[in-house]
Automatic annotation (TrEMBL):
Organism ancestry: Eukaryota, Fungi, Dikarya, Ascomycota, Pezizomycotina
Coiled coil feature spans: none
Keywords: ATP-binding, Nucleotide-binding
GO molecular function terms listed in the Swiss-Prot or TrEMBL record: ATP binding
UniProt xrefs under Gene3D superfamilies: 2.40.40.20, 3.10.330.10
Top-level taxon in the UniProt lineage: Eukaryota
InterPro entries per UniProt: Asp_de-COase-like_dom_sf, CDC48_domain_2-like_sf, CDC4_N-term_subdom
Name of this chain's protein: CDC48 N-terminal subdomain domain-containing protein
All copies of domain CDC48 N-terminal subdomain, residue ranges: 12-95
Length: 148
């Protein structure tokens, strides 16, 4: 009998709250990262409920239990999950760099803000950060006195 290709096992992780408030990060324990053959800075596709998914960067968290994943409130919203729900992650090594993206503000978040939204919010958020973006995702760009 011919050798069958080895299929990767589906990896379920329980959602817990993020320590930092970065919209681009998923924190995993060292053991979970090792089991999945992931390294700090790797990109993963994260699937939540209702066929929602997003792309995040992996970081290690020594204080996190195996089988758990830390994601912030905004990422949980994008995935339609809450604390205690299960998510799945898949390595996503071949992500391409975007040449251009369209970012639209939510109307009530820009009321009363003057000046260039790009210069004030978007450029500092994306500059030198190499953030993965997924069509349809929301994110929050924060300044010391304002959130957009």
């Amino acid at each position: 009998m011919a050798d069958q290709p080895e299929h990767k096992k589906k990896v379920n992780l329980q959602v817990t709250d993020a320590v930092n408030d970065d919209n681009s990060i998923i924190a995993l324990s060292e053991n979970t990262m090792e089991a999945l053959q992931l390294f700090r800075g790797d990109t993963v596709l994260v699937r939540g409920k209702k066929r929602k998914d997003t792309v995040l960067i992996v970081l290690a968290d020594d204080d996190l239990d195996d089988g758990s994943a830390r994601i912030n409130r905004v990422v949980r919203h994008n995935l339609r999950v809450k604390h205690g729900d299960m998510i799945t992650i898949h390595p996503c090594p071949d992500i391409k760099y975007a040449k251009r993206i369209a970012v639209l503000p939510i109307a009530d978040t820009v009321e009363g803000i003057t000046g260039s939204l790009f210069d004030v919010f978007l450029a500092p958020y994306f500059r030198e950060a190499y953030r993965p973006v997924r069509q349809g995702d929301l994110f929050i760009s924060i300044l010391p006195s304002t959130a957009l």
